[in-house]
Design brief:
299 residues, alpha+beta, Pnp Oxidase, Chain A, 7-stranded antiparallel sheet, two-stranded antiparallel sheet, 9 strands, 35% helix, globular
């Protein structure tokens, strides 16, 4: 439920005040913050027209994001963002009580009979046809210490159907956090959400996974001369299709909705900001990243 509540910490130019639990503003920063508040009020009043971004003469303030630049990339970005979040907290309650399952049942109608019947415990021939075309899915795993969602991609059919109750896919190099596999060693439950470029439909597989290094299976899942170190074998509990409304809400396949690279910070710029390094480091990181994500796909 959205409502109003007492405003949080405010920013004044005559004294230091905590801002959104991240520290204090110096007097000069407070002056800037007051100016930012004026900008933020303008943003709020013009959110629909601005699409959430106020831009002008090379200086910009992006709301709801991990990166903000005001006065040409000033280190004051974080306090300015926090001022914005304080303002947002005045407009809606984000710490309202969580709804119970019974509350949800009152708010939402039950799924129709044909949707319930579309959830099946094994792959049918048309599921296998979709998997033969699939090039991307997100893998959800978890354990007591936390949850993880990991993107997985490959050529069409990179998820192999072993039988109607089992699929398998290779684990290829990423950032080496290997959180998904660590999770599976402690909790074998997983979810797979497939997207199909150009199509307004998802396919979901829920089941239980295990990490293996069986040579024959890894060889079967190889790409060219590259053989994965490990593979994940999934025992299917249920498989279903999911409507593509989210795709159309996001205009995901609409070329006109593609994001301009220059409208957001690059990986190098973000790393430089977090590590207090210079622009030359950002450029080097970006060059390495650009080469890696396009060429070092299979280790």
């Amino acid at each position: 439920m959205i409502g109003r509540h007492n405003p949080g910490p405010c920013v004044r130019s005559d004294r230091k005040q905590p801002v959104a639990q991240t520290g204090e503003l110096t007097a000069g920063m407070a002056v800037l913050a007051q100016f930012a508040m004026l900008c933020l009020r303008f943003i709020h009043r013009n959110e629909q027209r601005l699409g959430g971004v106020a831009q002008g003469k090379g200086h910009f303030l992006i709301k709801n994001g991990g990166y903000s630049s005001l006065i040409g990339g000033s280190s004051l970005a974080t306090p300015v963002l926090n001022v914005y979040y304080v303002r947002r907290r005045q407009l809606m309650t984000i710490d309202a009580p969580a709804l119970a399952e019974t509350d949800l049942e009152q708010l939402y109608a039950p799924p129709s009979e044909h949707i319930q019947k579309a959830v099946v415990p094994e792959l049918l021939p048309f599921h296998a046809e979709y998997l033969a075309k699939a090039t991307f899915f997100c893998l959800a795993t978890g354990r007591e210490s936390g949850l993880d969602a990991s993107p997985r991609g490959g050529p069409a059919g990179f998820v192999h159907v072993l039988d109607t109750k089992t699929v398998a896919f290779a684990d290829w190099p990423g950032n080496n956090r290997i959180e998904s596999m660590r999770n599976l060693t402690q909790d074998d439950r997983l979810g797979m959400l497939f997207l199909f470029p150009g199509l307004d439909i998802f396919m979901r597989i829920n089941g239980r996974g295990r990490v293996v290094d069986e040579p024959a299976l890894c060889a079967e899942l190889g790409e060219g001369s590259k053989i994965p170190k490990t593979a994940i074998v999934v025992a299917i509990d249920e498989v279903l299709f999911h409507c593509g409304k989210a795709i159309n809400r996001a205009r995901l396949w609409d070329p006109a909705a593609r994001i301009e690279r220059k409208s957001l910070p690059t990986p190098g710029q973000m790393l430089a900001a977090m590590t207090k390094l210079g622009a030359e480091v950002a450029e080097a990181v970006d060059a390495q990243y650009e080469h890696g994500v396009k060429n070092d796909l299979y280790g």
